[in-house]
Amino acid sequence: MMNRRHMANTRCGLASMACAVAVLAGAPSAVGAVALEDIDTQERRARSQREAKWRDDQRAQPSVRLGSAPPADFHRTDLPAEGDCFPITGIVLDGAPGHGFDFARRYLRSYVGRCMGHDGVNLVVRRVSDLIIDRGFVTTRVGLAPQDIHTGVLRLTLVPGTVRAIRFAPGSASGFWRTALPSRAGGLLNLRDIEQGLEQFKRVPSQDVTIDIAPGDLPGESDLVVSISRTRPWHVVASLDDTGSRSTGRLQGGVQLGLDNPLRINDVLTLGYNHAVSPGRGRGTRGNSANYTVPLGNGSATVSLYDYHYHQTVVGSQQIFVSSGKSRSVDLTLQRLLHRTAYGKTSLEFRVGKRLAHNFIEGTELASQKRHVTTAELALVQRQYVGRAQVDLRVARRQGVSALGGQRDAANLPAGVPTFQYRMGILDASLTLPFSVGGAPLQWTSEFRAQHSGDVLYASEFITVGGRYSVRGFDGEQNLAGEKGWYWRNTLSAPLGALPAAAYIGIDGGHVGGPSIKALPDKTLRGAFVGVRGAAGPLNFDVFAGWAGKGGRALQTARPATGFQLVYQY
């Protein structure tokens, strides 16, 4: 609380004090943790935590691969030399519906003009069949009808594999499969659609699903038989960690309630609350969150809401006052699968977000710190499997817009002034590679994040480097932040024998830049860390210690920078 008698003895009234704090809080700062943390700094801290959790969740999402096709040589077009062969002037694929098998027709054209005999024709039939199976059409067959090849035209017959019906297995729990499964009765049966459907089903934590292919009555027809088993449709997660700041409360506690299938459409609703565990007098934080996701066959829709409040006591040279702030954000994310193979998938993602933020001094709002910001983001997302490695890549373009009440820049905005209508490029990439050395299982995880903008940004849009969610080895009380930058995180982990735990070590690095921090002499950080994570029944734990390397002299940080997280799941 503020010392009222002290304030009465000073010549500085609340209005002038608010102006001074507004200047301090509004100026972009390379070092993001000072005695006074404004709502932009607090929001960056909370957003970094949310984004890190989101990236972890994305990498850990169910991934279904129903086996690769057997080794095939359809990428080859050579033919055996045969004495009794006939020149082929055209190849016709009869029975292929619509444009679903145009890829097979294009492949067959590569054999036109060749001389084929008995073995060559059979080889072409086998290769095009393998190609079709590799594309996921596992119940589609290609045959060779009796014909006179002397005409120069080779005619192949395709029997398309179709879905006769989609039904639940006897004894299975029932449900609404249409939101999860892209397949429809009467359509082509494709293994990639089944994989997509299984992933959508399995994103519901309490639900496990299998899909079997049962033969139908007619050639090419099959039924998809869905078996669903469910456990308790709700779960509670409680957490305790030291992710907060000293100015508002280092220890943070949270509780999260997950509701599975609330509308019976394979949807998931998550409600969360977190706060400073021991805020003390004159400081503290609290936040609320809600997240709702519904699958849409080859896509999904997610609505996320976040509400955050903080307050802190600031000791000035002449008075003590309370600074506080609140922010609220709403995001809508739509994702659509563009392409899927046995080795990867490509998706398009569109996100629109609205953020409201307010800063206060002794309950009086700082008008210059009010934020009503709208952003739109378009991203291309790729997941690829290379051997045992999983590679995730996300390339995004984000832009500040004036839609939905977003703030507009003032007319004739001077150069060097932050803009609400900014443009930004974002890159997220990660590699997860399990391997073994001398029979010991190891895993290397590498994460890279970069942000670039040629505009002058408000501090809330800066990329932050330094702390457990970017460059480890720093405690996060101070960090580097700027309009553009990157960080690279590398972790090597190994299980601790038969214990349900793993030890990990690693080295991180990062760099920031941009017009707001041109005068900063050192813009690069590097740190190392070591830790242990594991589980004891329903309790998961993570403890670590890090040491600042390059940049450690520029930022004040604990040595070592330690941290922990406890998560109890029920």
From TrEMBL:
Keywords: Cell outer membrane, Membrane, Signal, Transmembrane, Transmembrane beta strand. InterPro entries: Hemolysn_activator_HlyB_C (IPR005565), Polypept-transport_assoc_ShlB (IPR013686), ShlB_POTRA (IPR035251), TPS (IPR027282), TPS_OM_transporter (IPR051544). The keyword Ion transport does not apply. Residues 1-32 form the signal peptide. The keyword Mitochondrion does not apply. Residues 42-72 are annotated as: Disordered. GO terms for cellular component: type V protein secretion system complex. Residues 163-215 form the ShlB POTRA domain. Residues 86-161 form the Polypeptide-transport-associated ShlB-type domain. Residues 42-59 have a biased composition (Basic and acidic residues). GO terms for molecular function: protein transmembrane transporter activity. GO terms for biological process: protein secretion by the type V secretion system. Residues 220-534 form the Haemolysin activator HlyB C-terminal domain. This is ShlB/FhaC/HecB family hemolysin secretion/activation protein. It comes from Luteibacter pinisoli.
